[in-house]
Amino acid sequence: MSTGNISDASLKYFQDNKIKVLLEEAMHDVIMQKPEDPLSFLLAHFEKRTPLRLIIAGPPGCGKGTQCELLESHYGIKHLSVGDLLRQEVDSGSEVGQKIAPFVKEGKLVPDDLFVDLVIKRIKEIESLHQGWVLDGFPRSRAQSIYLQRAGISPQKFLYIDLPDSVATERALSRVFDPNTRKTYNTASAPPPDGVQTVKKIDDSPEAVGMRLKYFAARKDELIECYSPFYVRIDGTLDTNGVFQEIKEQIDSLEIVKLM
């Protein structure tokens, strides 16, 4: 059976050689870069590998940061932590950083209009170098996902680490981090090595964790709906390696990975 004017043989060729994926990825890069000479840009594009674009979401304490670090190491992509990006902006003393500082220091959510452009700018910097990325902690709402979509930014996978609130709370309250390396540990399941001095994050107090859980729960469904074509549920009750293996299986199943 043929499809329109396309023969069965042509359709099979189209599918077997991942033409649809190639064209979608090429169009994404054209929208992001807006080159003056689109034809030359596309010719150069097809000579390069296609970078991964991932979003990891989930409640506080689900292990997003840890999984992003594993993905960064395994696939050679950039881990873009919005929390770290905000702290860096505050430390820079910029005008935006000064406006963000009170929210970061008190563990409160930063208003979208103060930081979304920072995230988009950083993603575009990464993509301009033809590198892949994994977004950690963003977007958290439909409005934020729309900001990304309008900027031409979309993931190939939206990985949702699902975890009951009770377990998420317990894990979040057990988190500590090394202020020198910013590496996160869990005093219950993955304690820091002997001699490493750690502190708790301001936004890991019982009050702050509770507030973030409520915020996340109220927006979880709308966020999943926004990314339904890319959505994958990951069992967050598994140990760190188990979660990573589930995520890795999903990424390795991407046709785009076979083209890399």
UniProtKB/TrEMBL annotation:
Key words of the record: Kinase, Nucleotide-binding, Transferase
**What SUPFAM superfamilies does this protein's entry cite?**
Dimerization-anchoring domain of cAMP-dependent PK regulatory subunit, P-loop containing nucleoside triphosphate hydrolases
Q: Extract the NCBIfam families matched here.
A: adk
Hey, what's the signal peptide range on this chain? Answer: none
Q: What is this protein called?
A: Adenylate kinase/AAA domain containing protein, putative
Which family is this sequence assigned to? Belongs to the adenylate kinase family.
Alphabetical list of PROSITE patterns matching this protein? ADENYLATE_KINASE (PS00113)
In Gene Ontology terms, what is one molecular function of this protein?
ATP binding
* Domain of life assignment: Eukaryota
Keyword Transferase carried by entry: yes
